[in-house]
Every structure is written in C-alpha cells, then in structure tokens.
Write a structure and sequence with these properties.
414 residues, alpha/beta, Aspartate Aminotransferase, domain 2, Aspartate Aminotransferase, domain 1, five-stranded mixed sheet, 12 strands, binds pyridoxal-5'-phosphate
Length: 414
C-alpha cells in the first residue's frame, strides 16, 4: 500500500535530506513511544464495530485491514523507500521479480508491447520475453546502450520501456533521460530497475523515469537476509492500478521482511559509499592483472559509459564488477569456463553465491548461475561469456579480497 492520507506522517522538516529520511521516514511511533520501528506481525486488524469494518473494507476510511494489502511495518518501509527515491508512492512486494510482475500485470493488457534492454537480469528476460507472451504482451529486446534501437522498436501498442542500469553482470549503463524522452513522446512509461545503485547513488525519477523497480533483497536489506521487492512511482498508478491488483493477487511482502529492509535502509548510504570505494580499488587492481582480459566497472575510466554512469550515479560506480579471465581466445569456451571456475574455487573469503548486495563479498559465474536459464544465443546477445566472473564487493577488507582473487589468477594453467 502506498501513502494513505488518513494515516499520519512522521513530523519531519520538508527539506530533510536523504540520510535523515533513511533513518526517520515511516510512521509516527505508537503510544508506547518506541524509538526503533515496531514489527507488526499480525495478519489482520480489529475494528471497533461492523459498520467501521465495512467502511474500511470499502476503502471509505483509511485504516489497516489485512496484511495482504495494509500493514504498518510494510507501510513504514514503503514510505521510507518512496522518500529516498523522491517518489509519490511505493508498493512493497514479496520479491524483486514480483515487483516486475505486478508492474506489468497492473499497467498492461493483452495486445500491449514492451521494449526492454537485452542485458537485464536473466529472470526479467524470462518473465517479459516468455511468460508475459502467454498473456498476449509482447516484448522486443534491444541494445542497452544504443538509444536508436529503442526508438526504432516503438510500435503504436508500446506501453512500457524497461531498463536496468547498470546491468547485471556487465554493468552497462543506459541513458535514463534519453529513454524517458523516447517513452514519453510515444505515450509510454519508463520503468528502471535500480537494484544495483539503490537511491543512495541513483534516483531514476530525477532523470525522468516513471517507475523504479527494486529487489529489496539486494542493497536495501544489505546483509543478504530476506527476499523483498518494491515499485516506486506516481500515486495515481500505484493507488489506482497496483494496490487493487495486489489485493487480488497477493504478492505482498511479509511484515518481518519489510522490517528487515526498513532497518537495512538506515545504513544504505554509508554502505553504498564504502562498498563502491572497495569495488573501485579491486577493479583497478584486476585491470592491471596479466591474467585478466577485461574488467567491467562503471567507476573505471575504461568503462564505455563511464561519464554517463558517473553523472547518473552520484560519481560512484556501485559495488558490482565483472571481469573476464583470459582463456577464451586460446582454448575456446570450455577452457574459459574451466579457468573461471578455478579462480572462483580458489577463493577462501568470497562467498560463492549468485546473490549480491550483501556486506559479505560474493562471487559467481553468471553464465551457469544467474543467466543459466537463458539460451547460449541470449547469453551471447547479453555479452555473457564462459570466462566471465562477477564479484559483488561487500565490506571485506579490499587487501584480503585482492589476495583471495590473486590465489586463483596466479595459479591458472592452460
Ligand atoms: C537487477 C535485478 N533485478 C531483479 C532481481 C530479482 O530480485 P529478487 O531476487 O528479489 O526477486 C535481481 C536478482 O538478482 C536483480 O539482480
């Protein structure tokens, strides 16, 4: 549920800044005066009498009713995230993928058309390109970076442009303002998956996007504890189209998970800065290593969209980098995969897991994990080769991380 006018706001100055909003936006304390936000683990709420219950169910009176669509802890998380993104409203979902599903089901109908970057997260490609096609919503996949391809893919039925920036795992940035112009000129919406940057680095609505998608599983929680998602955007669409669908379809966030994300957001900005600094240092070190063919990191001057990314991302590259281990040119895909596996298996600090956004640094082989369900053709279109390794840098000491990767890189055999 997004912002309900009948439910009071926290008394904050209107010009409170992001770091203050991150620790204070939500709901006023209960009569008990708790300083840390309460966790309301309850499936339903009690009404004083039958007539009040009827008015609340009919949406005539603002109140909490049933946790599938209204819960104070979830609302605190929604208000806080909306404030950080500079959005009118926010609706929390059970996962990042549920957020994308809710957005598409809530805004589109059979016959509508989506344009999506071909470099987005693998499950997003599956959902938009495969599952949604069953319901008559067609998706055209285009280059992440070539704005002309987005324009050329427009049809009279195009209702949504969907982008993710930077992308997983190659950290390609797209020009949010340029895509917003294309969408709006065609009467379509632009949605941006802001999972990699979080609002601490990038606020897509400021660049003209209409909706922001989050996997709260990543940096919003920040410690790899829960699966969560959210959509931020205009009040009219969230209240009018997404909240009613949530009420019927039920992809709601558990209040416990909402509470974890709510408290995670309190340290979001300092984590994003510290993790970005470590990621930059690691990327620079990898770029100089003789066994590394290429490093993908928006904070590096060698990144093709370095300037765009720095402009959109508050001058920071984020915490995810990818690199290709040398091998493909010498021995093809099989050798490249073997060498990438050797580097991953030689680590003792990095967690071998496809998740990202954790304080613990994670390492994965995208081709066989996050993008394993795609065809080789789809993977290659997204630039994901067998020698590619993704590292999501946490708060580990960066010298330990260098040593962890060096162990495998220095012992590579043909
Ligand atoms: C960019 C991006 N968007 C969306 C998702 C999906 O989020 P969730 O796992 O919370 O469903 C992920 C998950 O890795 C992701 O990396």
């Amino acid at each position: 549920m997004s912002d309900k006018p009948g439910i009071p706001r926290v008394d904050l100055p209107l010009d409170a800044r992001l770091d203050t909003l991150a620790v204070r936006e939500g709901l006023p304390a209960t009569p008990w005066g708790e300083n840390s936000e309460a966790l309301f683990l309850t499936s339903s709420f009690v009404h004083p009498d039958a007539a009040t219950a009827a008015a609340r169910f009919a949406n005539e009176e603002e109140a909490f009713v049933y946790t599938r669509f209204t819960n104070p802890t979830t609302m605190m998380m929604e208000r806080r995230l909306a404030a950080l993104e500079g959005a009118e409203a926010c609706i929390a979902t059970s996962s990042g993928m549920a957020a994308i599903l809710l957005l598409v089901m809530g805004l589109l109908k059979a016959g509508d058309h989506i344009i999506c970057s071909q470099s987005v997260f693998g499950s997003t490609i599956k959902l938009l390109g495969g599952d949604m096609a069953k319901f008559g919503v067609e998706t055209t996949f285009v280059s992440q970076t070539d704005v002309d391809q987005w324009r050329a893919a427009l049809r009279p039925q195009t209702k949504l442009l969907f982008a993710e920036t930077p992308t997983n795992p190659l950290t390609e940035a797209c020009d949010i303002a340029a895509l917003a112009d294309i969408a709006h000129a065609a009467g379509a919406w632009l949605a941006v998956d802001n999972c990699f940057c979080s609002p601490a680095l990038q606020q897509p609505l400021r660049w003209g996007a209409d909706f922001v998608i989050h996997s709260g599983t990543k940096y919003l929680d920040g410690q790899g504890r829960v699966i969560a998602g959210a959509i931020c955007g205009p009040q009219a669409e969230i209240e009018g189209k997404l909240v009613p669908l949530m009420r019927s379809a039920g992809m709601c966030l558990s209040p416990f998970n909402a509470w974890v994300v709510l408290k995670g957001m309190e340290t979001l900005s300092i984590r994003m800065k510290a993790q970005s600094e470590r990621a930059l240092a690691l990327a620079q070190w990898l770029e100089a290593h003789p066994q590394v063919e290429r490093v993908y990191y928006p904070g590096l001057a060698s990144h093709p969209q370095h300037e765009l990314a720095m402009r959109q991302q508050n001058g920071l590259g984020g915490a995810v980098l990818s690199f290709i281990v040398k091998g493909q040119a010498q021995g093809g895909a099989e050798l490249a995969r073997k060498r990438a596996f050797h580097v991953i298996d030689s680590t003792r600090i990095c967690s071998i897991t496809a998740n990202l956004g954790d304080t613990k640094t994670t390492i994965t082989h995208p081709s066989s994990t996050s993008h394993g369900r795609l065809s080789e053709e789809q993977r290659l279109a997204a630039g994901i080769t067998q020698g590619l390794i993704r590292v999501a840098v946490g708060l580990d000491d960066v010298e330990d991380l260098k040593a962890d990767l060096q162990r495998g890189l220095d012992t590579l055999t043909a």
